Amino acid sequence: MMNTGPVQDGAKKKKEIKSNPSAQPEPETLTRTVLQWDSRTKKKRDFQIFPQSTSTTNLPFPLRDTMLGTRATSTSASASAMSRVNSVSASPRGMSRPNRRISASSSSASSVTTLPASPNTKQQQIPSSAEVVIVGAGFGGLAAAAVLAHEGIQVEVFEAHDTVGGAAHSFQRRTPDGNSYTFDSGPSYFMGLSESGDARSTNALAQLLRLLDEPVPQYTYLSCDYHLPEGVLRARAGGGGVPYDNAVREMGGESAYQQLKALRRAMEPLARVAEVTPFAALRSDAAAALTIGRSVPRMSAAIARALAADPSQAAALPELAEGFDATMRRAGVTDPFLTRLMNLECFVISGCLADQTAAAAMAYLFAERSREDAVYDYPQGGAMALCEALKNAAERRGAKIHLKSPVARIKHVDGVASGVELTDGREVEAKRAVITGVSAWDTLKLLGGQLDNSSSGDSNLSTEVDALAAAAGAVPPLDSFLHLHAVIPADALPPANHELAEACLDSPHRAFDAPGAGPNGTDALNIHYLHVRDWSDGVVDSPLNVVNVSVPTALDPSASTDRNMHVLHAYGAANESFSLYESELPADGSAKYASSSSYQELKAQRKAYLYDSLRAIFGPDIEQRVAHEWVGTPLTQRRFVNRFRGAYAAGRDVTRVNMFDASKAPGADTSLQNLFACGDCVSPGVGVPAAVASGIAAANRVSGVGKHLSLLNELSEMGYSV
C-alpha cells in the first residue's frame, strides 16, 4: 500500500476537510450565470443558479460524501482564468441544484462550492395515473421514455437523483477563485456515435439520436494508451486493424501476433452477424420473428461472405450464444501476453473476463474498431450531453421526467404490475406497464422481495416475486468503483492541442491523433489512458489492478473555465470491493459514515492505488501537483446511484440469462405481467449502446409490434439497415 503521509520535496501539505458538517460555513447568497451546452440548438445557453440553504444530505452526487475528502493546494498555474460509443456512458443536471461551500481545516484554505451541472425542467405535478411509468432515468430509462413518447404514448419517469443519467451523469464543482469544473462520473469511452452522413452506424444510441433529431457534436480521436507491465501499447482505431495488430506484435512478439490474426479470422462470422443484427429490432417475445426476421436475409448474406474465404469458420456461429473464451480456444489462443490482453479488453467493456463476456460483443468491438476509417468519439459537453439529448427528446414529445422523486414500491396485484408508490406516499397507476430501469436486485427490493428467495409477506405476489428473487440471486453483482476526480495544472501534464481537437469536431475526414501533435513533434495530451499494475500471474481483475484515466479537457476545453487547468477522472471499475467499506455503514442505515474518521482514512488508503497509476502514466510528482480532488467509493455509488452494494453491473453475461425470470429468454420480460426491464442487468448488457438498446426493446414490448415495425420503417427510411 502506498505511503500516504506528508508530501515531500517542498510541496505544501494538503489540507483535509473537517468532517463535522456543523462547522461548515453557510452557503453563498449570490446568484450566478453559467454557460451550458444545448444539444438541440448546438449552442451555449446561459442560466442562473439560485443557491439554497442545504445540509450535506441534499448535496448532489456523485460526491456528496466525497466533498468531505476534498483538498485545495497552491499550484504554479494561474488561478484566474467534457464519443463515438463503444460497447460502454456519464452526466448530471439538477433543478436548482443546491450550492454548498465546504471549507478546509484552516481558515486560510480554499473552499469548494457544489454546482448544478445543468438547468433542469420545472417541478412537475405528480399525476395519479399514466399509460407507462418508468423507474429510473439512466440511459435505459431515458431511451425507453423517448421511444414511447415518440410513439405517442404517455410516459412518466421517476428518478431518485436530482439529475438524469444514472451512473453516467456528470457534475460540477466551483473553486474559490470563481472557476468551475465539469466531471464525468461514469464511462467516457465511446465508439460509433459520429457519422459521416452515410448512416452506417450500428450503434443503438447513434441511431436513436438521429431518429429523434437530437444531434450531439463529437470530438473524434484515434488512440488510447494502455500502460501495461511490458510497456505502452497504443490501442489505435482504424487502418483495418493493422496498427493495433502491429502494436501487439511489437510488445507481445510473433506468437501473440500470429494468434491474434487467427483470432480475428475466428471472430469474422460473429462480427458480420452482430453488425447486421439491429439493436432496434430486438424483442423478447414471439413477435421477434417479425422484427428481427427482417434482417435474416442480410444475416445470411453476411455469413456467406464471411465463410467464403474460410468455410471452416462455420463452427463459430454457435458461439454467438457463448462467452469469448470459446472463440479464443477455437482460434488456438495460448500465448500468455495475448490471453492477458484479450481478458483486459473484455474486462474494460463488461467488467468480466472472457468467459462472461459475450463473444458477439467482442467480435463486434474488434470489427468496429478495425474499420479502415474507425475513430473513437467523445461528445462535446461530456456524456451528459447524450443524457440531456435523450431527456430533451422525451420531454419535447410529452414525457414527464420527475427528479428527486424516489420510488419506494412497485405496486402489484395477482402477478400484475399496476403502478408505483413514491417515498412521500403518493401513488401513480400504470395503465399499460411499468418499466424498471434499475438493477434486478434493486427491482426485487421495490417489489417487496428478498434475495433469500422469499417474498416479504405480500400474499398478492409471492410466486412471481420469488421467481424474480431466484433469478436475481443466481447472478452475483460485480464489484464496485473507486473514483478520483481531480483538477490539475496544465503544465503538470503533456501539452494539449485544442486547435487540432477543434478541427476534428464533427469532421468526417479528420480525427485527433495525440502522437506527434505536441510542440516540436512531441506527443500531445491524450484523452484516455489505462494502467495495469501487474498481470504476471495471469490475473487481470484483481482489486484496483486496472485503472482507467480520462482527461476530457485534452479535447473539450469547456469542462474547465480555467484554461490553465485540466479535469481528470481516474477510477477502478468493477474492481473495488463493497465489503471493504461495509463495516462503515451505521446500523440505522444512515449516511453518518461520510463524516467518520475511519471512512476518511480508508478513502485515503484506497486512493493511493489510483495515484500509483497516475504516477505510472504522468510522472512521479503528479499527486503533488493536484489542486483539488474528490474521492468516491462503493458507498458513494450505493447511496447516490441507488446501486445494490454499489455494483458496477451483473457478474454474468446477461445475453445468456434473464435476471428477472430465469424461465424466460434474455430480454425485457420479467416474472410479472406488465413489468418490463431495461438497463445493464438486461440483454445486451453493460455499456451505453447496450443500455440504450435494452430501453428501446422494453419500450417496444410495451407499445406493441405494430408500432415497433413502424419505428423500424422510420429507421430504414433514414438509411439504416433494420
UniProtKB/TrEMBL annotation:
InterPro entries: Amino_oxidase (IPR002937), CrtISO-like (IPR045892), FAD/NAD-bd_sf (IPR036188). It comes from the Eukaryota. Gene3D superfamilies: FAD/NAD(P)-binding domain. One of its GO terms (molecular function) is oxidoreductase activity. Residues 1-125 are annotated as: Disordered. Residues 50-59, 112-125 have a biased composition (Polar residues). One of its GO terms (biological process) is carotenoid metabolic process. Residues 72-81 have a biased composition (Low complexity). This is Amine oxidase domain-containing protein. It comes from Pycnococcus provasolii.
